[in-house]
Amino acid sequence: METIFISIAAFVVAIGVLVAVHEYGHYIVARWCGVKVLRYSIGFGKPLLTWRGKDPDQTEYCISAIPLGGYVKLLDEREGNVDLAEIDRSFTRKPVSSRIAILAAGPLMNFAFAIIAYWAMLIIGVPGVQPIIGEVAENSIASRAGVESGDRILAVGGDSVGTWDGAILFILDELLADEPIAIEVVSEQGNTRQLQLDIRGRISDLTEPGKLFDVLGFKPWAPVVPARVSEVTPGGPADLAGVLAGDLVVSADGEVISSWLQWVDYVRARPGQNIAMKLDRDGIVLEISATTGIAEENGESFGRIGMATRPPAGLAEKYISNQRYGVTAALGEAVSRTWAMSALTVRMVGRMFTGDVSVKNISGPINIAEYAGYSARIGVAPFLNFLAIVSISLGILNLLPVPVLDGGQIVYQAVEAIKGSPISERAQLIGQQFGIAMLLMVMSLAFYNDLSRFF
Which helix (H) or strand (E) covers residue 323, if one does? Predict the structure, then answer.
């Protein structure tokens, strides 16, 4: 229940911040262009909290009931009668260049926010796992390329990488070309090799959520940590059964336990069940049993037993790379990351329209809330990274040439500039209906993907 609450809270905070940033772009540029702003709303539907600004326009500021968007209402002759004294402050009376600037300001603010979020994240420091290859599947793309367990990825497509996050980003970027991906690896013995991952014809499979490593045929390396207990939760199932710190779990229900990760998976798969354990305590084998507790996460029940371990000394220092930049260097890196993520997102969206990239990547509010909660639980830096990625996606989404979005409205203004007169109301109405139908289709697909993952 706590996990669900954190996910909902993180989602509301994230969407609220990103919508506020987006709408502030429209709001501030409209004021700079001399357009009267009637309302600035975070959320749709019935206003829950309203107050008037002290400026001469007395703009109405609202927090509304449905936290899935927002809007800025401008003085506009198309939406009602306008006082002649204020006619020059109507949106429609401004030059096309001003109208385009107002419309584009929202998405541009999302990109600016992404830069700020990345900048703050890089100053705080981002821990990342070094891109070391674990198990390699036989007769897979990776094995045919010559990838071996223990190899560390140095570069993808000529770009140096230091963490799995960077490696994944560049692999996704390279695979969209549907050509073999050049990677540089170094073995445990220090031998550097140039390899080619032949992914041709597999773009759709590779871009299915969570399938990248499965299709490539390798897993990221993970340390084998012995199933030795470092801490026991007071009053938990393990404590009640007599487990002590220092005990080593040897087997469970007759199955040999060779690592802590295997032990965790075993317990999680057995909520509310009795587990017969063999423990090694200072060379003496003990047989005890414990009934696991039941916990819930994302609507799924899993087992808990109240044990914890600590990784071996020096493991983090050896395999964790902490990326931290100075104030100036962080800004340059933040701009670079925003550009790279924006370009990748645009290419992915384009390939979805052509059917090359799996549409299962389209996420709805359930999946976004899950990621928001997960990143918030990990720490400030991961949550900032999440905000930056979603902000970029929101900016790109709103620039699509769909009539109900900012991009579609910008197209209308551009057409007006070319033909010398506004597009007819009928044409705009048809465009709006088409845009709404497209958005409903995308939203339905997003909800379908969410529910498919959930169930």
Answer: strand 320-323
Residues in CB range of 332: below 8 A, 6 or more apart: none
User: What tens digit of pLDDT does each residue of 173-182 get?
Assistant: 888 888 999 9
- As given in the structure block, the two tokens for residue 278 are 């063999």
Structure tokens at 92: 């429609």
53's tokens: 């600004």
Cα separation of the two ends of the chain: 18
Closest CA to 394 of 15, 76, 9: 15
Q: What are phi and psi of 59, to 5 degrees?
A: -55, 140
What is the Cβ-side half-sphere exposure of residue 416, based on CA atoms within 13 angstroms? Answer: 21
Tell me: the pLDDT tens digits for 255-314?
Answer: 999 888 889 989 999 999 999 999 999 999 999 999 999 887 655 788 999 998 887 666
DSSP string, 130-195: --BEEEE-TTSHHHHHT--TT-EEEEETTEE--SHHHHHHHHHHHHTT-SPEEEEEE-TTS-EEEE
DSSP-derived secondary structure for 69-126: EEEEEE--GGGS---GGGGGGSGGGS-HHHHHHHHHHHHHHHHHHHHHHHHHHHHH-E
pTM: 0.76
- The one-letter amino acid at 17: V
- What is the set of active-site residues? 23
